[in-house]
Design goal:
With 62 residues, the protein is low in regular secondary structure. Helix content is 8%, strand content 0%. The chain contains one helix and no strands.
Length: 62
């Protein structure tokens, strides 16, 4: 897993910190090397138990 901080992909870092998930999602395409299939999470989501990649992805990708 790789955690990418907003400072690494926001075009205008003067607006940071930002607490609007829509603004963050509008910048995701700027993450260098982002895979075709990825898992995005924000502060509105949490995992209540341990999870593994197989829960989200198949060997084919999705």
């Amino acid at each position: 897993m790789t955690i990418v901080r907003s400072e690494e992909f926001f075009a205008d870092t003067s607006v940071l910190p930002i607490h609007n998930s829509h603004a963050v999602e509008a910048q995701l395409h700027r993450i260098e090397g982002l895979a075709e299939h990825f898992l995005y999470s924000n502060d509105d989501m949490f995992f209540g138990r341990p999870v593994s990649p197989e829960l989200f992805f198949t060997p084919a990708g999705v």
